[in-house]
UniProtKB/TrEMBL annotation:
Residues 18-198 form the BD-FAE-like domain. It comes from the Bacteria. This is Esterase. GO terms for molecular function: hydrolase activity. Gene3D superfamilies: alpha/beta hydrolase.
Length: 253
């Protein structure tokens, strides 16, 4: 038996809400997945993840899909603090449940942040990891908070780079002093939870971020799965096609 409860308040101070997709099937150890939407930390909502949430619910999981504060007016690290609130909410609501995190785009970044902080399994679908080094290497790129389709691969790369720089610097309120602490792979530790990194081969999220994150995880002996997908799809574009892979990973860890 399953049921869906919408707009449950998890942070009354900031009026933040989540949707709870609850699986009440007996005979299986309960697993609660925090499913985190993308949107560059400046747009998007929990409503973006209804299809993926339904698929994970169908696979036998509780799925918790939160909204979080966006920039502006709420800059780094406000969304990360919101995810801590969600984690605590689940622990109170389902104290016997195993917790995992899954996220698309910047939601994948925050899922891995939860793995670093709490040691839980995390799945990132096109997460944003190459932050400090990428930004410092691309000073000549003009930051824009808009994306689009280019006529050629070269045009698309320029559009992607402008957008990538734009949403990262917007998240940091244009403060380059925050670049280092906002880069997750610097903070990987031995207690980090197992991580599954997905990325398309020619998409918005640079492959360099996945490779740097993978290297940091391996250095700390953290179980790490990586899957590169052909094409240009970003995060939610391919999410429904990898639900079985996500489930296999979560079942293992």
């Amino acid at each position: 038996m399953t049921k869906i409860n919408k707009d449950l308040v998890y942070d009354p101070i900031h009026d933040l809400k989540l949707d709870l997709y609850q699986n009440e099937t007996s005979g299986k150890k309960q697993v609660s997945i925090i499913l985190i939407h993308g949107g560059g930390w400046f747009r998007g909502s929990k409503d973006n993840e209804t299809q993926l949430a339904a698929k994970l619910l169908e696979a036998g999981y509780n799925v918790i899909v939160p909204d979080y504060r966006l920039a502006p007016p709420s800059f780094y690290p406000a969304p990360l603090k919101d995810m801590n609130q969600v984690y605590n909410w689940i622990q109170d609501k389902f104290p016997e449940s195993k917790i995992a995190a899954v996220g698309t785009s910047v939601g994948g970044t925050m899922a891995v942040e939860l793995a670093i902080k709490y040691g839980i399994p995390a799945v990132s679908l096109s997460g944003i990891f190459d932050i400090e080094k990428w930004i410092l290497k691309h000073h000549d790129v003009k930051a824009k908070l808009s994306s689009g389709k280019g006529e050629t691969p070269e045009d698309q790369q320029k559009i992607n780079e402008s957008f990538y720089k734009g949403f990262i610097m917007n998240y940091l309120n244009n403060d380059e002093k925050l670049l280092e602490q906002a880069t997750p792979y610097y903070r990987v530790k031995k207690t980090t939870g197992p991580v599954y990194l997905f990325n398309s081969l020619s998409e918005l999220a640079p492959l360099s971020g996945v490779l740097k994150m993978e290297k940091s995880l391996i250095k700390k002996q953290v179980p790490t799965w990586v899957q590169f997908i052909p094409g240009t799809g970003h995060g939610g574009d391919y999410a429904l096609s990898v639900v079985e892979d996500i489930a296999n990973f979560i079942e293992k860890y």
